[in-house]
User: Fold this.
Amino acid sequence: MRTIRYFLGRFCGAVATLLAIVTISFFLMRLAPGGPFDEEQNLPADARANVEARYGLDQPLWIQYGRYLGALAHGDFGPSFRYRDVSVTELIGQGLPVSATLGALALGLALLFGVTLGTMAALRQHSAADYATMTLAIAGIAIPSFVLLPFLGLVFGIYRHWLPVAGWEGGSPAHLVLPVFVLCLPPLGTIARLTRASMLEVLRSPFVRTAFAKGLPLGTVVMRHAMRPALVPVAGFLVPAVATVMTGSLVVESIAGLPGIGRYLVQGALNRDYTLVLGMVIVYSTFLIGMGLLVDLGYAWLDPRIRYLR
Amino acid sequence: MSGIWRDTARRLQSNRLAMAAVGVMLGIAAISIAGPLVTMHRFDSLDWSSIAVPPGLRHGHWLGTDRLGRDLYVRTLEGTRISLLIGVFAALMSLAVGVAYGAIAGFAGGSTDRWMMRVVEILSGLPLIFFVILLTVLFGRGVFLLLTSIGAIGWLTMARIVRGQTLSLRRREFIEAAVAGGASPGRIIFKHVIPNVAGPVIVYAMLTVPQMILFESFLSFLGLGIQEPHASLGTLIADGAGEMEAAPWMLLAPGVLLAVLLLSLNLFGDCLRDALDPEEH
Assistant:
């Protein structure tokens, strides 16, 4: 009961946060100089007024805000100011599957390999394999995706014609290899380091000693007893990891020429395409905040000592 | 206190990896300052007789030139210097804000602490990077806005670290003695709390520098950071990535330099943490 109440509260908090983000972004953009139709050459004043009236820009700001929220409540992100006759919902609908595939693959691989490598390093602490893994982990964190991706493209795409340098082609595996690899490295490195550190700590705790004393083999002790509590810090990293993958995706999509949603944020803001930018902010925030909720749910499963109070 | 620092310095000196990282860092910083002096080219001078030439000694452009005939040796070093400066300043900014905020929250305790930390919690759940991108696009791209917005992201973790340390310090006898002696909260925070949280703060500040450099390069790569004719490593890499097939040298020099710089900064921060706190690792 208490748990359900806790999560209802968390959910309401998340919705309120989202609303606050939308509000701040809405008014922030209107504070900025320039408007969506500034680049139209020699637009007569009355024609411009007509265009602006069509998009409701002639109304007072708070009416525009109210209308936007009203449409949003029905799942309508509004028309794009820049891409004529296309709604923001359609633009995001086209790009999101690409970006989401990329991000989900990268995050999944980062978790899988990060946890595996981190655990293996912890089990062989101070061995050559441990040092090699941790050095690679730091390299993965330190080397920026916008250096690594062009470099790998040069080596594997241009000097050796093994992989395509750019393009999507409906998400064919060959086109996915380089972008996903580059995108998953930074979170992979952090996850490996976090797993190693917390696994070392858990392996020293009394209940693990008891499990060994019962005569359980190493694999069983690690998988059945040590793994879950060791993953608590990793779960805490998942929200920043989503943010890392999202920002990385902006760069990776632009270098590899992938038709994701990454380009809309910067382009939309440059063009003062108000609705498009708001839509992007909502999509990104929803993913981040939703991940935060999921992680909170996961904590209790990972570590039974965690209770939802308050 | 000084004993801890001496031990730390000794442990660092005996760590070959740490010393190598320091050497590389100092080396890069030194070349970025002294390097441009030994060539007659300037970062924005155009050489129309050698457009997009590959690296070589004969034509005097050691790392080649770009499409406008600008010397890449000078531009890469100038870019490195700008990236380093921005990284250090942004890290200092997040250090100042984070330490002040965390120390006040931790020392005040009670509901003040709860509210201040709630703010940090909410902010760190937000897509701050996207806000920064929005801000830089919407309100022009000055260096000041760049620095503030980068620094605004880094202080959250610092505030958390300092607050946690301060909370545990607050109950210690020497702080209670200072309170009993009638010292003002400001004096206690500056004279007693902050010097005692220096260890973790320095480590985290050290690790913030590469994060800030990376973030600035990221913004510059998107065209939102340093503007032409000036360059940071990010803008040079963006240019290079666009000419990858025809002129790979434009990508290689700044790319390798940025990767090596970030790697050595991260490695050094790590070694520093191990040296300060040898029990844990």
